[in-house]
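Give me structure tokens for this 126-residue protein.
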Amino acid sequence: MSTKANEFIEWLDEQEKETGFSDYEIARKGGFSHSVLSRARSGIPPKWDICVSIANVLNVSPITIFRKAGLLPQGQNDRVEFSDWEHLLSQLSFEDQEEMRQLAKMKIERRQKNKSLKPLTTKKAP
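Here you go.
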């Protein structure tokens, strides 16, 4: 089995632990055959449309599933992708989205202020 397939299965197992869903429940809720996940467990990744269904069931961004299934290249390590934020924010009310925007602006301003407070390093003359 490929490394990509192993990564997808490990990720799916983690999601199932978090949600309490089984392969059967994900397939039933997603409207596809359980055999798709059985094939994924044997090394055949799901296709695009099934990834979208899995994303809807697990309430994650389809882009996340596309990457986990090896259909899209991975993003930069340890970096939150915009598509993940977009998916999460789309589930919030306008007021909550605005609150998150204000929080992000506040954090950016705080970071900029902290950078300006750091002591300047000076080079010693030779």
